[in-house]
Amino acid sequence: MVGALTVQLTFLLTIEKSNAATATVLQFLSPTIIVAWFSLVRKSRPGILVFCAILTSLIGTFLLVTHGNPTSLSISPAALFWGIASAFAAAFYTTYPSTLIARYGTLPVVGWSMLIGGLILLPFYARQGTNFVVNGSLILAFFYLVVIGTSLTFSLSVRAMPSHLKGAQLIGGPKASILSCAEPLSSALLSLLLLGITFTLPDWLGTLLILSSVILISMDSRRRARKINRPARHE
């Protein structure tokens, strides 16, 4: 409930304060947050690949939000706050529900978490009142947002958590991570083509650095898996 509510709310607030491409890229900081958190909790020293991943994600975020000028922000402070909050929420949402999903299944966990999260937000929205006109375009937009952009996407992403590991075994961790990077890249390209949002050179460099951190993390995970499996093969 907390994960589904916060990850969706913070992501949409980031879009409201900036744009869809920036929101998607900032949320992709979540893998770096996950590995940094586990390294801190387990008190284990991060390997060179994880260290490089953290460094590249930080540099990428710096370029994305400042365009290389530390004295100014290229996005609003609110967009930066909600974008970072979205990344932390996505990290929590990705790691926490694994035991619940194994016990109850994907659809019940996703469905109930979204239903309860929506009921929690309903009183806050009811106080604001309704200031929009309900028409066919609005209904179609809400249908796409609720059914395709939220329910279907969340169900597939959560269901894909174990299958992503299988895919990494079949095609390799780096290749699997490159495929997962299609989301922020496609978001940036579609924002450019359909919405007229322009990405400057620092924006593209920051995006590529953040995405490269995901590939580095996957390479480190694959290297660790090989170390674990190597003694078993000798036996």
UniProtKB/TrEMBL annotation:
Subcellular location: Cell membrane
Membrane topology: Multi-pass membrane protein
Sorted UniProt keywords: Cell membrane, Membrane, Transmembrane, Transmembrane helix
Predominant location: membrane
GO cellular component: plasma membrane
Family matches, as Pfam families: EamA (PF00892)
Residues that span the membrane, as ranges: 20-41, 48-67, 73-93, 105-126, 132-156, 204-221
Location of the EamA domain: 79-219
Superkingdom assignment: Bacteria
PANTHER family xrefs: EAMA DOMAIN-CONTAINING PROTEIN (PTHR32322:SF2), INNER MEMBRANE TRANSPORTER (PTHR32322)
Family designation: Belongs to the EamA transporter family.
Name of the protein described by the UniProt record: EamA domain-containing protein
Species the sequence originates in: Escherichia coli
